[in-house]
Design a protein that fits this description.
globular, single chain
Amino acid sequence: MALQFNPVELALFTPEEAAQYLRFESDGKAAMDRLVDKGQIKACVIGNRRRYSRVELDRFIEDQTK
């Protein structure tokens, strides 16, 4: 049985794209760095760059709306 992947769920965003997805108006990279430093959102590191999954961003939104 082959594994099925949804490319939309596996999408990885740059810090700027993630901030735009979350509708932040300030400096995207700095805003995302603060969320990671506070432990509010998880980033994956590819090479030496942080990337954010859509699933993690959606989890963060859900946590903020509780």
